[in-house]
Structure formats: C-alpha cells, structure tokens
Task: structure prediction
Amino acid sequence: MPADSETVRLLRRIQEGDTAAADDLLPILYRELHAIAGRLMAGERKDHTLQPTALLHEAWARLASGSDREYEDRRHFIRVAARAMRRVLVDHARAKKADKRGGEARPVALDEALAFYEQQQVDVLALDEALERLGERDPELLRIVELRYFAGLTLEETGEALGLTVRQVHRSWTFAKGWLRRELER
Result:
C-alpha cells in the first residue's frame, strides 16, 4: 500500500487545482481502484458494455475534475472513488433504461426478454435506491456497506476507518446485508 502521506499530499494538490497531481496519484492508487471496479462489475450482467477499466477511468475523470472536495486520507478518497464508480454504474443504467423506453427501441421476443432478465445478477437502479433508503435510515450503515462492498475493506479496516470495533462492524454489516436483501426482494 502506498504511503498515506504521499497520497494525502497529492490529494491536497488536486484540491488546490493542480491538475498534474491527479496524473501523479492515479498510478499510486490504480491497482486498488481497479480491484474495486472489478468487484463492482462482477455483480453486473455478463454482456455489460462497461468494463472495469472503463468504469475506473470514468469515475476518475469525475473525481479529478472536482477540486471542491476535501479528502481526509487515502481511505476516505478510496471510499469516495467507490461511490463515484457506483454513480457511474447508476448513470449508465439510467441511460440504458431511457434508451429502452424509446431511444433506440426495437421489438424483442418474449424468450429473449426473459433470458436477459435471468442473466441480470444485480439491478443497479434498485440497489442504488435501496442504498439511498439505507443511508436515510442509518448513515453509518451506508458507510459500512460502501467500505465493505464497494471499497472491499476488511472488517478490521472498516472498523479502523470508522472508529468502530470489529464486532460492531460485523454486527452492522450482517444487519445491512439482510436489510438490503429484503429491500431488493420487494
């Protein structure tokens, strides 16, 4: 893992408007961010038009251009980056849904439509809506889900990032997974 101090220094430079700092930061965090993108894409359908690299670069473009945000440390940035990747997937799903509502509509046989829905592993829009509801109910639970699921942190790392014990994180993580599962089954 790269030294937090170098990452924080580069994040500060980005916040100050130094666009070259983003170019210096990407190689340091690329492997970790690509792994997050890969985990996010693993839950998508097999014929998804985005690939992990494209997802990472789209989210990076959004993050690198936003100098209005302050990052506490590397983990905070990783959490924000994971959220940005989720937003890219949600925006992509919304655009696809808009296309299906008449953008480039074509008739689809019922068998083809059923096969498509059976291949879907996660409905990104439904997941995003469920996460929004979870965040309204309990912002800390949302942060735990973001760190565990989207950023891929361990229970220990999540507890350290949020100032919680491993036991608290485990209990909250178990509750959040069950709550989200019920919400998505509706």
In short: The chain has two domains: 1-109, 123-186. The chain is about 75% helix and 0% strand.
